[in-house]
Amino acid sequence: MGAPFPNVNERNATAEKIIRRFLSDKKGRVDAVVVFVPKKDYRLFSQEPKRSWKAVVFWDVETPGLLDSLRKIEATLPLPRFNGLSGAVPLQAGRLRSGAARMV
Length: 104
Fold this sequence. Notes:
Layout: H1 15-25, E1 32-41, E2 50-59, H2 66-76, E3 102-103
């Protein structure tokens, strides 16, 4: 999630653009798309960062009760062990662009 890799010879789209296009194509049939993103929070003077999930919600109109439901789902998920790029890559610290979507 975030900016595309700069490559003038190849067209590409970010995950956000793909999701927004999907929502546009399915307008009236899909209420929202939710992406669970693994994250690490580094704490001062702590060796082990806190691992958790963050739900990123894409929607045109807020869906009642969705955010509360997502918080419950986040609380029950096992801790992330890998980043979202590959099942073989350990979780790396990363950032989402601000304003990309609503983070729960």
